Structures are given as structure tokens and as C-alpha cells.
Amino acid sequence: MIRFLLRRLAQSLLLLWLVSVIGFAVLHLAPGGPLAEFTLIPGMTTAQLKLIAHQMGLDRPLPVQYWEWFRRMLVGNWGRSYRDSQPVLDVIASHLGPTLELMVSSTIIAILLGTWVGVLGAIRRYSVFDYLATVGAMIALSIPTFWFGLVVIYIFSVELAWLPAGNLYTIGNGSFVDYAVHLISPSIVLALVTIAIWSRYLRASMLEVVNQDYIRTARAKGMPERTILFRHTIRNALLPMITIAGLQLPTLLSGALVTETVFTWPGMGRLFLDSIGYRDYPVVMGILMFSAVLVLLGNLIADLLYAAADPRIRLD
Predict the structure, then answer these.
(1) pTM
(2) Half-sphere exposure of 202 (CA within 13 A, CB side)
(3) Chain segment 3-41, per-residue pLDDT in tens
(4) Residue 125 in 3-state DSSP?
């Protein structure tokens, strides 16, 4: 176990470094830049632009800029936002809570609905429900997140007026109920793809488990079908889902970026797009590195949980 953790830690550090190099290069080599906003100010001279570039460190060679940023990041100084001069870590922390709440709520919805659809589809294989679930999953995987979000807003906010169209809460009403109501629409939109993926994988996993020898042996001993379903079939079919759940973290992060934009949800996804628009490179790099850490950590936790759930798996 210790060797496995050390090996994964070394691989993760190498991947994080590669992410930082590629991300930093793509940002700084893209057209425009932080100085583009200053060129729009009336009366801004070339000398003033050079002075601003020098103060931001943008007049130095790109490898030098990267080394200075990387060196400061290692000691916890991720720089300051070009937009409001706030520390990058403080800016990310102020938007992290809404994103985590959105991801947790959508994950709970996806697990509950995805498990129900997957289990029922496997039990009633080739039934009308199974065909409808398969078609629904294919449609859900094909629908763009932003389009589905706009449809939800139009139906439930504009036409029916059941749910708010966006934002974290209603101005002047900071109650938990008001916050929960605002959380419903973005959570459902973000959970749509995960429900489809989870239900399809769980159905396939259950169909594989049903054909195992120990299931036939349990039936031959006269064990009730309900006991076989919950104690043996579902329990063993859920083991591969632990890995799938860990791999779904990148999907949730990318989906949150679009969902938060559609519903004006003040999370990290909305902050990421706003920071790109303002060419706020320190904040963009901070979010990029933070997201990469979350993805690698999620995959590591999934591997450890899989080994803990299945004694046949050895991590060495």
C-alpha cells in the first residue's frame, strides 16, 4: 500500500507539473493578454503600457515568467488577481463553496436516480422500461448542457414560474428554503449526464453479476430473490461504480463550468470564464491547478475505496 501511494504521488506531481507548463504556455501565447484591457483606456500611451507590463512582469521572457510563478506557487503564494488585486487563493476560496454544494447535490441526485434506473433496467431486461431508459440515456448524453439548462429555465422559470431562473438566492431572502429552491435547477442539469452514465454502467455490471456461479448457487439453495438481489447482485455490481464515480469528477467540473454560467451561479466555473474574459491569468492558472488536484485526488480515493471494498484487489 505504501509503495502504491508513493508511486501515485510521484505520478500525480509529474502530471501537475505538465498541466502547469501546458496551461501557462497556452494562456500566455494566446492572442490578446492582460494589457488588452488597458489599451482601451483613452489616452493610454505606449510608455504607460510598458510600465504596466513591467509591473506585472509581462516584459520578461516566458520561461522566466513561468519559473517565478511556479516558485511562488510552491510556497503558497499563487499571486494576485489582475482584476481586483486580491490574493488568488482568497478569490478561489470565495467561490469554492457554491461549486462544491452544486457538485454534491447533483451527485446525490445522479446516484439515486442512476442506481434506480440501472437496477430496474437490469431486472426488467428488454422490457419497455429498459428500452425507454436506454433511449433516454442516449438522448441525455447527446444534449448539450447549456441547451438543457436554457430549456429548464424556459419551462420551469418562465412558463410555469415554479423555480427561479438563476443566482444563489433571492435578494433580501437568505433563508435555507430559498437557497435550496435555487439549487434545484442547476443540480438537475448538472446531474443529467451522470445519471445516464451511471445507469448504463450499473445495468451492464448487474447483468454480468447475474450470470455468475454464486448467483446460480444462491438460487439453487432456495434463497429469496430479494435477498439475492440486494445482498449479492447489487452489492457486487456496485464495485465497478466506485471507479466510475472517481472518473466522473472531471465531467462534473466541466459541467459545472457551463451550468454555473447558464444559471449565473457564483462558483468556480463562472469565475473561470469571467477570469478568461478579463485575461486574469493568475486566477485562471489557480483554478486550473486546483481542478487538476481535485481530479487526481478523486481518482486516488476511488482506487483506495475499490481495494477496500473488494479484498481480491491488492495495491502494491
Answers:
(1) 0.81
(2) 29
(3) 877 888 888 889 999 999 999 998 888 777 777 667 667
(4) coil
| Helix, strand, coil tally for the chain in percent (to 5) | 75, 0, 25
Of 58, 63, 50, the closest CA to residue 21 belongs to 63
Domains and CATH numbers, the chain: 2-74 (no CATH), 92-309 (1.10.3720.10)
Across the strands, what pairs with 170?
173
Burial (0-12, 13-18, 19+ Cβ within 10 Å), 182: buried
Q: Per the structure block, which three cell numbers stand in for 270? A: 463562472
CB 281 within 8 A of CB 28: yes
Residues of the chain with pLDDT under 70: 36-37, 39-40, 247, 307-316
Beta strands in 116-182 (DSSP E): none
Cell, residue 267: 462558483
Q: Is the dihedral of CA 19, 56, 33, 266 positive or negative?
A: positive
